[in-house]
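tl;dr need the bound structure. longer version: we got a ligand (iron/sulfur cluster) that a collaborator sent over and nobodys looked at where it sits. i said id run it. heres the input, straight from their email, havent touched it
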Amino acid sequence: MTDMKDFNVAEFPTWCPGCGNFGIWTALKKTFSEMDLKPEDCAVISGVGCHGKFPYWFRSYGFSGLHGRPLPLAQGAKIANHKLNVVVMSGDGDCYGEGGNHFIHACRRNVDITLIVHNNGNYGLTTGQYSPTSRQEYKSKTSPFGVEELPVNPLMTSLTMGATFVARGYAGNMPLLVELIKKGMQHKGFAHIDVLQPCVTFNKIDTYEALNSRVYDLNKEGHDTKDWKKAFEKAQENERMPIGVFYEGDRPSFEQWSPQLKETALVEKKLQPDVRDLLEGFY
Ligand SMILES: Cc1ncc(C[n+]2csc(CCOP(=O)(O)OP(=O)(O)O)c2C)c(N)n1
Ligand code: SF4
């Protein structure tokens, strides 16, 4: 079995002490080591934000992309080499705001990648402005009287757009988060895991204390993860917040469906026909 330490780099993350990102960072290392994955078997791709620095502090292949753009990068990496385990780190602003369009189409496309959204209900890196998932009572520099818009419901969105694995984790519940990431990675197709991630510096309403009193383990209550309608209903609960697997479907993944990818990874294919002469014409 690989060791959690195999995924460490020389530097230690500079996230604020107590930030929920530490929980997600530890959970991913634990998941990879329990799945006996090696750093060279994996790619961790991020957008921009506090979460976006994840690949700096995680030893595997990695790429930190533009704001809102980790999903197209990750889908490209997976399509080129579908033997790689591709995990996407995104923020609520990055994924549901700037990258919202990519998010809905990734759900439809069903490429076999795992998306982990660090949902802290604000724009952490740029000092706490309100984000697409900020609740209406959230006050910040850009919402001094609270937020006028309705918050995005990430799980209802991914369920509606055809995601085949939909879950919600909590950075303050490590054993469950590890279980969810493992299940998401084992699932063949697009896995969306929205993670409640306290931003201890700027978000003073979605604190560990507040979340601890709201979250409950959905799967311990006998939820049927094949029941899409029930999952959609559960995704609407707001006061008590279910965490766990909401939905598991079995539509073929993009790689299983695509005739070009069925046999082998694109990186292993011989160019057919050989277009190198043609390409040289452009240099
Ligand atoms: C195209 C573009 N727009 C805006 C920014 C400025 N910006 C950097 S990080 C960020 C918000 C990040 O918030 P979120 O995605 O929720 O991540 P967090 O920092 O909370 O992890 C913004 C607006 C940018 N870098 N690029
Ligand atoms: S600003 Fe918030 S999200 Fe960013 S590192 Fe600090 S606590 Fe974490």
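gonna send this back to them w/ a short note. The longest strand covers residues 241-248.
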